Amino acid sequence: MAGSISTLGLGSGLDLQDILDQLKDAERQTIVRKETQKEGLKEKVNAFNGLNAKLFAMKSSALSLSLESNFLKNSGAVSNEEILSARVDDGIKDASYSIEVAQKARQNSWQTAGVASPDAVIYAPPATTFASTGEAVTTADETMSIQYGAAGEQQTIDISLSAGMSLTQIADTVNNAANNKNENGEQLVSALINKDENGNHYIRMSAANGGNTADSQVSVSGFDYVKADITMAMGLADGSEPAYVSLAPGTTYEQAADLINTTASNPGISASIINDGGADTPWRLILVSDKTGEENRMTIQNLNLSEVTGAEEASLNAVFQVNGITYNRQTNTDIKDVISGVSLTLKKAGETSLGVRNDMDSAKENILSFVDNYNALIKEIRGTGSTDEADTQDTETTNPLEGDYNVKNLINKLSGLMSTIGNTESDYTSLVDLGLEINKDGTVTMDENRLDQAIATDPDAVQTLFIGDGQKDIPGLGDILNDGITTMTSSTGTVTTEIDATEERIERLEADITRDTERLNKRFDIMTQQFAQLDSFINQLNSEAAFMNSIFESFEKTTDK
After folding, report:
1. Which residues neighbour 318 within 8 Å (Cβ) at sequence distance 6 or greater?
2. What is the per-residue pLDDT for 470?
3. Which of 280, 287, 416, 456 is 20 to 30 A from 373 via CA?
């Protein structure tokens, strides 16, 4: 404790420190009262902040009730959702549609004949009997003509062969031929010696640049020991660039599927190997367009497949009727250009109906949310989280807002807003007309049955009540409520003004407490010194008295003798 001296009172024998502490505690009561007052004001600020938060929540609900978009939501009801589904945009008129799906859009598909294994060869090498690459394969001088380039634009590479040439000699002659080069000196056709599955050798001709393009196709005819890579072309009817895939002699079905799927220029075609369950030849190469519709019909060249889905010019488009009018579309999903504001997804063939109606569920939720936020605000002001009288009677906590004039005024303004009557030309002019009831404790209750009935009976009137009529310059109740609460939550509103004023009082009290504490401590520092001097003086008097008593006692003993 400031100003205390631990030995105070030892000289005099009096409890001077206790006397000093009691005097200081008595004079400190003024500071204690100010501290208590400050804590009370802090509780009031906290209460006002809580009140302000509830006001903003109520304002948010009022804003939702002022937005036309929240009253223009729509929903679609499909009688048979196995046939189709529909997504409905907001703001479109109520309507009904009869829909018949004749055919869903389909993916084009092709397949090969069945084979015994996925490892079966889809493009066979030539059948030869040459066990050695060094044995002679030519019997006379002749010319091998190699065609290189895109169809219709091919160039001929003539290779002169002599009698008695081996496979190795022929391959070297092709690779080193002067006319087997482009204008940049780059080799065009590559000749390699390969083995077939029986160990016999043949010459494989391929594009030196790797192929897989229209202008790098190679073909050779008339020589049993030579076979060129075949270039498969695949495209779509949408006009996109076709893709080219080079298949070497000996390529299997599985390898062909992988080459098709991994080509960088694939226009949107997927290849797979399937087992159709047949007894001897169940494996097939299947090509399927990634997307549906006639624009994705495939064209396949240089590979032996037959069309399955879409065969014999059967349409790949979705075919359906809406109110008797027939439509063809490339896709089954997200069809937006048939019914304005509605997106259709076709699921299977069949008949169904679609009803579009105004969906007031969100508007109802906003109305109930506004009521709930109003009740939460009233409970905040009353200092209780319950409207039950038994609960409030058992609660002994002090409400910092109780009796505040400005708070009472705020409640009156809010009650006035809740009772606002709009200038509409319908049976619904206020919240009361929709089922609002005011309770004794200041809270309100919304009769949901009456609200549902009003929405079902005349949704346009309910909408006009809240958003008004711009053409007739009639303000909506949503704007009236929002503007009224906005004023209350502004920087000059009741709550903000009260918070600012209360915080200023707290600052003044804190300054007073600091000043009074410093003054009290200083005063009692001086009193402590004074008490110490008093203690020393009394101690001196006590010593002198003891000395005098000893003299008197000695004198009495002398006279007695």
Report:
1. 101, 103, 104, 105, 292, 293, 327, 328, 329, 330, 331, 332, 335, 346
2. 77
3. 456
End-to-end CA distance of the chain: 57
| pLDDT for 12 | 53
CA distance 340 to 318: 19
Are the C-beta atoms of residues 71 and 360 closer than 8 Å to each other?
yes
Condensed to tens digits (0 to 9), the pLDDT of residues 224-236 reads 999 999 999 999 9
Nearest-angstrom CA–CA distance, 274 and 286: 7
Using CA atoms, how far apart are residues 292 and 222, in angstroms rounded to an integer? 43
Instruction: Report the distance separating Cα 430 and Cα 415, nearest Å.
Output: 13
Provide the 3-class DSSP secondary structure of residue 6.
coil
Helix (H, G, I), strand (E, B) or coil at 331: coil
Quick: pLDDT tens for 60-74.
Answer: 888 888 887 777 777
The SS3 assignment for 525 reads helix
State how far the Cα of 323 lies from the Cα of 398, in Å rounded to an integer.
69
| CA gap 491, 485 in Å, rounded | 12
User: What is the Cα–Cα distance from 341 to 74, expressed in whole angstroms?
Assistant: 10
Structure tokens given for 4 = 């205390």
Helix axes 459-467, 29-66, angle to 10 degrees: 130
Using a 10 angstrom Cβ sphere, with 0-12 exposed, 13-18 middle and 19 or more buried, the burial of residue 201 is buried
Among 225-229, 391-395, 490-494, name the one with the lowest average pLDDT. Answer: 391-395
Average pLDDT on 467-481 reads 84
**Per-residue pLDDT band at 213 (split at 50, 70, 90):** very high
Phi, psi of 445 (to 5 degrees): -130, 135
CA dihedral in degrees (86, 90, 93, 96; nearest 10)?
10
Tokens 């918070």, residue? 499
DSSP symbols for 174-230 = HHH-TTSB-TTS-B-EEEEEEE-TTS-EEEEEEETT---SGGG-EEE-S-TTEEEPE
Distance CA 519, CA 517 (A): 5
In the numeric block, which tokens belong to residue 195? 């083995």
Cβ distance 399 to 383 under 8 Å? yes
CA distances (Å), 289 to each of 48, 123, 331, in order?
67, 23, 13
